[in-house]
Design a protein that fits this description.
single chain, 10-stranded antiparallel sheet, 4-stranded antiparallel sheet, 12 helices
């Protein structure tokens, strides 16, 4: 089959266009190393075949990126150096032919690239090319001098794009991290091909627009990249770690090491024990290329800041990839020149990120996150006070993620209040707004939002019980409003209304979750149940949605969740005014106030 492989001869477009216009799913990639767009059009999982200029351009992006990754793995494995060099020479000719200026077909909002619509896409491709050449040079492979024009052009393109970006005052952009990584990768490779010591640290790492300066402004004091998105947080961290190939950690400024360690801690903290990384604020929900990115990131991070929690993330990524795992994570051994930092301590039962606006709570068998922070940078969702629920390996109530951005309608759907386990008033969307942390302790987090709806205050208190999780959502207006508390399962869900007592829910998956749901006494709350779109990897898959809805000036929605594996079992849940009582089968009783 290798003889049938060839590099595409066209410039790439915008990969986000690789999506079915009817069903909102990313199209099947086919054989990306074939270099030829799928005959008859790209396949959709629901039977469509899609073929237009934007989709062809998106496929070409994916093909070029797959080739760059393939060459990087090929160089690492050894024994096929001649093949790797020949393909790199082919790319050098293609780049010289096609990438002579910035891409004229890019959308106006983009930082335009040369081989692709986006300079960001160019940079990701260039990082893999540069590392391929560096690996070959370290092994003493001959014939690399012919690649110097390509490497020099890649460094120059990264510098030009970075100058445009920083000239616009966007040093904190996630683009900047990758442009710096591309500059480091290309210039290191060029130095290695010339047989010289690398002298680009001032330009790409230490200078006023270098990687270190970027990290200092892009990452908040609580360790989160400023956009508050799991995907973009990992995106920036991965670029930074790739840029630091062969660097001794002791040579990195202490504050920058602290930033990298803090960013790694964030991922270790939000990850479930079974390795799920919640897709907070605008990342893909499930995607094979994303699983490869997590594998690579964990392999890099474990060498700098060991974390047992991230081992589970890597294990889950391998399971998602199955046969698609191309061994990319195995080529990163010895990436850093010095010893790793000491392993970080395990996360506490409650962790709060006050700047990003997340609270992470671990009850027995339940991993929960409450979202109260800023709107989310350039990738915000209207989801204040959402509550996400996971088992070790089950996404009972996940952040639903996001589709590729070229599908405007589904992108809007998954950014909406309707799509999230948040609250709504008068069936309207929340405003783009920020919440406030009211308080936290060793077992609870309490947050409020006052600007999601005019003259409405909402407070959510989430608390860890002995073997269960308590959720208390209080919504207050100046007059009667139609108020809804939303359940948005990522798994199958059963709902049972009882003749007396709480509504019961059962959430399925690898693990089972039980829920008890009650509310302020005397209010006619309707537990409206209907089908709705599931997580964003397939908008056509339906899940059972529940809206607890009432017309009122003031209402408390109280829920208790218990994993089926935990015990003793919850036997009674009662809300008396602003106090919730939970009773267990062993006779234990606990009480929780709505605002602590």
């Amino acid at each position: 089959m290798a003889a049938l492989r060839r590099i595409a001869r066209e410039r790439g477009g915008w990969w986000h266009a690789y999506i079915c216009p009817a069903h909102g799913v990313e199209l099947d990639h086919g054989d990306l190393l074939a270099g030829v767009f799928p005959a008859g059009g790209a396949r959709c999982a629901h039977g469509c075949r899609v073929d237009d200029e934007a989709v062809r351009g998106a496929w070409t992006v994916l093909s070029h990126q797959a080739w760059a990754r393939h060459l990087r793995v090929l160089a690492h494995r050894g024994g096929q150096d001649a093949e790797a060099v020949a393909r790199l020479v082919e790319y050098a000719g293609l780049y010289a032919e096609l990438a002579t200026d910035r891409h004229g077909e890019a959308q106006t909002w983009m930082l335009r690239g040369r081989l692709f619509h986006q300079a960001l896409t160019d940079a990701i491709w260039a990082v893999n090319v540069g590392h391929t050449v560096s690996t070959l040079a370290e092994r003493g492979t001959e014939g690399l001098a012919v690649l110097l024009p390509l490497l020099d052009d890649l460094e120059r393109a990264a510098l030009d794009a970075r100058d445009v970006l920083t000239g616009q005052g966007q040093l904190a952009s996630n683009y900047t991290a990758w442009l710096n990584a591309a500059g480091v990768s290309a210039s290191r490779a060029a130095s290695a091909a010339r047989g010289r010591e690398w002298d680009g640290a001032e330009q790409w790492l230490e200078g006023e627009n270098g990687l270190y300066a970027h990290l200092r402004v892009a990452v908040a004091e609580d360790g989160w990249e400023w956009e508050g998105s799991t995907y973009y947080h990992g995106f920036v961290l991965r670029a930074a770690l790739l840029a630091l190939r062969s660097t001794d950690p002791s040579a990195i400024p202490a504050d920058v090491v602290g930033v990298l360690a803090g960013m790694t801690d964030v991922l270790a903290t939000i990850a479930t024990p079974g390795g799920i990384l919640p897709a907070l604020h605008d990342g893909p929900y499930l995607r094979d290329p994303l699983a490869l990115e997590w594998l690579e990131l964990v392999a890099l991070a474990q060498q700098l800041v060991p974390s047992a929690a991230l081992d589970a993330v890597a294990g889950r990524a391998r399971e998602e990839l199955g046969a698609a795992d191309d061994g990319l994570d195995t080529l990163l051994g010895g990436w850093f020149a010095g010893p790793p930092l000491p392993e970080r301590p395990a996360p506490a039962p409650v962790t709060v990120y006050p700047v990003a606006g997340y609270g992470v709570l671990r009850a027995e068998g339940i991993h929960a996150l409450v979202d109260f922070g800023p709107h989310g940078g350039s990738h915000g969702h209207r989801d204040k006070l959402s509550l996400y629920l996971y088992g070790d390996t089950t996404p009972w109530q996940p952040d639903p993620g996001q589709v590729p951005y070229a599908h405007a309608e589904f992108r809007d759907l998954y950014a909406s209040t309707e799509a999230h386990p948040a609250f709504r008033v008068d069936d309207a969307e929340q405003a783009e707004c920020a919440g406030t942390l009211l308080g936290s302790d060793a077992t609870s987090v309490t947050a409020e939002v006052t600007t999601a709806y005019e003259s409405v205050r909402a407070v959510r208190r989430v608390a860890v019980g002995d073997c269960y999780l308590v959720d208390l959502l209080t919504v207050t207006g100046q007059e009667a409003r139609r108020i809804s508390a939303q359940l948005r399962p990522g798994t199958s869900l059963d709902v049972q209304v009882q003749a007396a007592g709480p509504v019961r829910t059962t959430w399925y998956g690898d693990e089972t979750l039980h829920g008890w749901h009650t509310h302020t006494a005397g209010l006619p709350v309707r537990p409206m149940t209907r089908p709705g779109p599931g997580p964003a990897d397939d908008p056509q898959r339906t899940r059972t949605r529940v809206d607890f809805t009432v017309e009122a000036e003031h209402v408390v929605f109280a829920s208790v969740y218990q994993a089926a594996s935990s015990g003793p079992a919850v036997t009674d849940v009662r809300l008396d005014g602003e106090e919730l009582t939970v009773e267990l089968a062993d006779g234990t009783t606990a009480r929780f106030r709505t605002e602590g």
